[in-house]
Amino acid sequence: MSSALLRRLQFSVVLGITDGILTALTLAAGRLLNAGDPLTLSLALRISAVSLLTGLFMFFTAEYARLRGELVQAAKQLSLSARGQLATTQLGKAVLRESALAAGISALSSFLGSLLPLGLGAVSTRAELSFALTLLALAALGMILGHTLYASPLLWATGLLLMGGILALAGMYLKVV
């Protein structure tokens, strides 16, 4: 596997996990923090399935459009006369396969990123502990990203933690679930 493809797949995983956790916080924050209306495992699975599907379609669309756009740009730079000439070659098929693989990985990561905190909240007698652990998971992801990217792990952790808190507040206010 090429290093460029590996970087793209890592991007898919990070995007998926972040999307899944933030989706879970947005949709289920009220249930995680309201003892009177507990989160069920069935609801956790349904929210995670929605996170998987939206992640799959969103990521595939964006990645396929980006890669096809690169083929179009390359065709222009090569002064190819026929419109979409590169896209109809084996390169076009490779772009489709790569986009589908990356989208599948992102969607699975989104499902797991959503299911882990929600599943914990559903089986726990203390759903607010699941809420806190979800925010801590975002902070840990931020620390890892900051370290990996040679940036400030504390800044990344704080940013993701704040983003999670803001979306949780939005979810509580909107009362989606």
Q: Spell out the helices and strands N to C.
A: HHHHH
Total strand segments: 0
Report the total helices. 5
Measured as a percent range, the helix fraction is over 70%
Q: How many structural domains?
A: 1
Write down the overall mean pLDDT: 86
Overall shape: elongated
Q: Into which percentage range does the β-strand content fall?
A: under 5%
Largest sheet: none
The radius of gyration computed from the alpha-carbon positions, rounded to a whole number of angstroms, is 19 Å
List the quaternary state of the chains. Answer: single chain
Structural class: mainly alpha
Segments where pLDDT lies below 50 for 5+ residues? Answer: none
Taking the alpha carbons of the first and last residues, their distance comes to: 41 Å
Provide an overview of this structure:
The N and C termini lie far apart (41 Å). The chain is elongated. It has five helices and no strands. It has one domain (3-174). Helix content is 82%, strand content 0%. The protein is an all-alpha fold. Helix 1 packs antiparallel against helix 2 and helix 2 runs antiparallel to helix 3.
Give a short summary of the structure.
This protein has 177 residues and is mostly helical.
SSE blueprint and pairings:
Layout: H1 3-33, H2 41-77, H3 90-123, H4 127-148, H5 153-174
Helix pairs in contact: 1-2, 1-3, 1-4, 1-5, 2-3, 3-4, 4-5
